Amino acid sequence: MNKSKKIKKVAVIGLGYVGLPATVAISKTNLYEVIGFDVDKNKINKIKSGINPVEDKDVSLYLRDNKLNVSSLEEKLADNDVFIICVPTPVDEDYEPNYSIVEKAVALVSKYVKKGNHIVLESTVNPGTCEERLIPIIEKISGLKVGKDINLAHCPERINPGDPRWTVYNINRNIGSINKKFNKEIADFYRSFVIDAKVNEVNCLKVAEATKIVENTFRDINIAYVNELAMSFDAMGIDLKETIEAASNKPFAFMPHWPGCGVGGHCIAVDPYYLIKRAALSGFDHRFLKIAREINNGMPQYTVDKLIKEMEKIKMPLKKNQGNSFRFDL
Predict the structure, then answer these.
(1) Rounded CA gap, 105 and 14, in Å?
(2) Strands (E), 86-207
(3) Cα dist. 126→85, 96, 133, 140, 271 in Å?
(4) How far is it, in rounded angstroms, from Cα 304 to Cα 326?
(5) 275: closest CA among 72, 87, 126?
(6) Is 3.30.70.100 the CATH classification of the domain at 9-203?
(7) Helix, strand or coil for residue 281?
(8) Given this model, what pLDDT does residue 330 score?
(9) What is this structure's pTM?
(10) Nearest 10 degrees: CA dihedral of 180, 182, 188, 191?
């Protein structure tokens, strides 16, 4: 592991399932002074007490034997060289991307950024977000020129929460910067703690932003395909599980996906909307992505309807309570 000559102090903003493992990984290198920041004082107190607030075995083991430098005091962000932002990017009820948490985090960091610093966004955003929304905030608050005085980079997180096999240490990463001349330095910083994987330098911010959206939308589309097959094969009386298993013995050009009662996780049900909405601003209609979202959003209702029918067959009908909840008559 090679320590950057310029990077000595690192701040990670947001200590959830992305930021906390990153803080631990960077701390374990013993190459940098690291501060983990979160506005949630209860979370900070838990971490200081050795309690892991996220599902991550590596974090739990580290907190058992080590003290992690964390705080909810924003003045602790002063005098850092790299600021890594790992905060949520949800969608509103109408599926509009909600950037308010990211923008607040960027505004906070902009108060403390100095010439030569790097701001790295790991939160999932649509292509163009860094340039269109975040740079104006940074330059207004800091008074510095992004791409000249300081660097803005995007390295989209790829954490699979609770997965003991794929972790912050061995998942390949992509990173792009507003100015390519800064990109190697920040990529080398990531290489110092992403020790068992590659850190791929892409040509620009938009490519880095697009990678995570493409990855999760790919999964959403394929899950929608098998969810629709589940409904179709139910109607035709075909065993879908056996069919997919049989199709999977083809050694190329097929990747099995499995049906479920919808789409779970933190990202897959959200990220396609970022691309749908941003493309619409450029005059493009992502019809295919919309259909996939419609199918997957409708799968929970299909699952419940199927359950109700099966319960009726065995004389255990569901009765609707007040508030539209259901109960079994046992």
Answers:
(1) 9
(2) 118-121, 151-154, 173-177, 199-201
(3) 16, 12, 11, 22, 8
(4) 10
(5) 126
(6) no
(7) helix
(8) 45
(9) 0.88
(10) -70
pLDDT confidence of residue 162: 82
Contact 44, 16 (CB under 8 A): no
Domain 213-328 has CATH 3.40.50.720: yes
Please state the domain extents for the chain. 9-203, 213-328
Q: Which residues of the chain have pLDDT under 50?
A: 330
173 CB neighbour count, 10 Å cutoff: 21
Q: Give me the residue label for tokens 């009765």.
A: 319
pLDDT of res. 322: 55
| Residues belonging to the active site | 267
Q: What confidence score (pLDDT) does residue 81 get? A: 97
DSSP, res 49: T
Residue 174's pLDDT is 98
pLDDT attached to residue 315: 82
Distances (CA, A) of 46 to 51, 85, 162, 316: 5, 21, 19, 45
How many secondary structure helices (H) and strands (E) does the chain include? 11, 10
Residue 112 confidence (pLDDT): 98
One fold for 9-203 and 213-328? yes
Q: pLDDT digit string (tens) for 170-213?
A: 999 999 999 999 999 999 999 999 999 999 999 999 999 999 99
Between 271-281 and 287-313, two packed helices, what is the crossing angle to 10 degrees?
A: 150
Give me the amino acid identity at 253.
A
